[in-house]
Design goal:
There is one protein chain. About 20% of the residues lie in helices and about 25% in strands. With about 260 residues, the protein is an alpha+beta fold. The protein has three domains: about 55 residues, Structural Genomics Hypothetical 15.5 Kd Protein In mrcA-pckA Intergenic Region, Chain A (Roll); about 90 residues, Pseudouridine synthase I, catalytic domain, N-terminal subdomain (Alpha-Beta Plaits), CATH 3.30.70; about 80 residues, 2-Layer Sandwich (Alpha-Beta Plaits), CATH 3.30.70. The strands form four sheets. Strands 6, 7, 8, 9, 12, 13, 14, 15 and 16 form a nine-stranded mixed beta sheet that branches. A hairpin with a 2-residue loop joins β14 and β15. The N and C termini lie far apart (about 55 Å). This is Dual-specificity RNA pseudouridine synthase RluF. GO terms for molecular function: 23S rRNA pseudouridine(2604) synthase activity; RNA binding.
């Protein structure tokens, strides 16, 4: 008995429309599905359907209403303190998004944008920061930003300052820590059976390392340090791409400025 192929199945060389739109940098896959369901997307002049497959030559057009919707979306930079989780509430700890309130808006924010409760709708973390870590956390309504920071093909640099102990050594850890182990931190470690990408790791001062990573495995830095005998006693993310934490105080947030790019 012959069966019709599922709607999402396509000819060789085709991909789902939402993936194609994301690959073109138009939006995230989730946004694409929303726009398609609203009738805001046309393929070769015809209104597209959810699950549609397209080839590389397909002409994709997006309604101005979708572009206007994107322009109203905000991206927020938060200095997460210790004790807040990045995503959903867990084990009695509050999610970092609860700090995004008018009273916590940094007075030094160069953006003239005003806070509105509507900006909380769909606001989600683009990446995580452990509950016992501090520093720059990005929350965004914009799927393009999320894909840029945490998409499958993202190689965005993230910079951390990491205070460490080495066994009983808590002062001048740099002097006690073997150079060969520092070389392993830079390249040569594996987590969960997979080799880590090369990292830039250097001493910032005798008790603090500076890490620059281009991937984000779960609790990656803490686990890397454990593998070479170091214990992390403080971890702070200070930069993502070209955006730095700067002078933003703990527990406060600001908007990503219109001309600011990761």
């Amino acid at each position: 008995m012959n069966r019709e192929p599922p709607r999402s199945a396509g000819a060789p060389g085709t991909v789902r429309l939402n993936k194609r739109m994301a690959d073109l940098g138009l939006c995230s896959r989730r946004e694409a599905d929303d726009w398609i369901s609203r009738g805001w997307v046309r393929v070769d002049g015809e209104v597209a359907g959810v699950g549609m497959q397209v080839g590389p030559q397909a002409r994709i057009e997006v309604d101005r209403r979708a572009q206007g919707h994107q322009q109203t979306q905000v991206t927020i930079l938060l200095h997460k303190p210790v004790g807040y989780v990045s995503g959903q509430a867990e084990d009695g700890y509050q999610p970092a998004v609860t700090l995004v309130q008018d009273r916590n808006h940094w007075q030094g924010d160069p953006s003239r944008q005003r806070f509105s409760p509507a900006q909380l709708r769909g606001l989600a973390p683009a990446g995580r920061l452990d509950i016992d870590s501090t520093g720059l956390l990005v929350l965004t309504q914009d799927g393009r930003v999320a894909r840029q920071l945490i998409g499958e093909d993202s190689g965005m640099e993230k910079e951390y300052l990491v205070r460490v102990n080495y066994g009983e050594v808590t002062r001048d850890v740099q002097g006690a820590f073997p150079a060969a182990q520092l070389a392993r931190l830079r390249h040569g470690l594996s987590l969960d059976g997979r080799a880590l990408k090369p990292a830039r790791v250097d001493w910032q001062n005798p008790e603090q390392l500076r890490f620059v990573l281009t991937e984000g495995r779960k609790r990656q830095i803490r686990r890397m340090c454990e593998l070479v005998g170091l214990k992390v006693v403080g971890l702070k993310r200070v930069r993502i791409g070209r955006v730095a934490l700067g002078q933003l105080p703990p527990g406060t947030w600001r908007y990503l400025a219109p001309g600011e790019r990761f």
